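User: Quick sanity check before I run a bigger batch. Here is a single chain. Can you write out its predicted 3D structure?
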Amino acid sequence: MLGIFVKDLYTVRKQAVWYAAVVVVFAALSVLIKQVAYAAAIGILVPVSMPLTAIAYEEREGSQKFVVASGIPRAAIVGEKYLLGLLFWLWSAAAYTTAYFILGAEGGAVEFVLPLCLPLIVLSAVLPLAAKFGVEKARAYMIAVIVVFMALYVALMPVVRDAAANALVLTLSLAGAAIAVFVLSFLLSVKIYRRREF
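Assistant: Done. Predicted structure follows.
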């Protein structure tokens, strides 16, 4: 899996540098205008975009069949894309966290954790779609998924603020749900990938 991971990083290195710079710019913009939502929003897009970019290169070059034929377990092939998404989630999360605390951490624990959980949930929704339908359709679905989750985020924020008394329970529930969805998504993607013909 490490070999595929290094290969993907090399393949998407130019896009990776660009996305990493965009994350920093949006975090800085959040600090300048005192609105952390910009850093949170880019944190949803980037972790999903990087694995999809790597998959797009593989589909264009037809290299997936060679990777599968090499004998690498399909679970490892799928897991590497999740690892790539996690790497850029960590980068985006670090930028968001920095911006959040520079601005004084005025929100509660739930308001801090929710934007950290959303990218994992969106990533968990999109990667099985990429495994099933290919990256082009997955990108179209990604937009719909992001719109739905952003709408839910906006709609639920008043409820979240009202639940401040149970902030610890709600925060742990959100984090636990994001991790559970991520693991279930990986298992689903592996199942889909094992059934694919190359």
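The chain has a mean pLDDT of 84.

User: Great, the batch can go ahead then.
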